[in-house]
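[Automated response] Your request has been received and processed.

Submitted sequence:
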Amino acid sequence: MDSIFEYLFNNHDKLLYGLAGICLLVELTLIGLSGPLLFIAIGCALTGVLVSLNLVSTWEVELLFVGLFSLFSALLLWKPLKQFQGTTAVVDNSSDMIGQTVPVSETVTANGGSIRHSGINWNARLADDSTVESIKAGERALITGIDGNIILINTSKA
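Generated structure:
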């Protein structure tokens, strides 16, 4: 076991390549390509290339270059990688109730109220993007989401 550590301490480029591989592996499997370890992996790999070419020789300078390459890769790649994550809102289709228009049985506000669906009174509240303060009993409302056992509603478009 000592020979492995001794080998890595004597061959910093191999150590940096190994760190780059581990960071990339963790990034892709556990984190999901959200950024931080990807940039560190790029910094380690590029610094490893400089060490292999004998352009960098001390560990202090290697550490500096890992930091600089990580920072520059983050600055260059952050915006393009964010575009891969999508800009559209995810449509909530977790329930077949979403999208249905229902009568309000008790005035619904941002704090609570109730609606009637399938012959049952359900606890409800206004959705966060609602443009009204309340929806009165007897009016119709559109189900826009589910939050636990609370139905999120908004004013009906019909």
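Summary generated for your ticket: The chain has a mean pLDDT of 84. The helical segments are 2-10, 12-31, 36-52, 59-84.
If you did not submit this request, please reply to this message.
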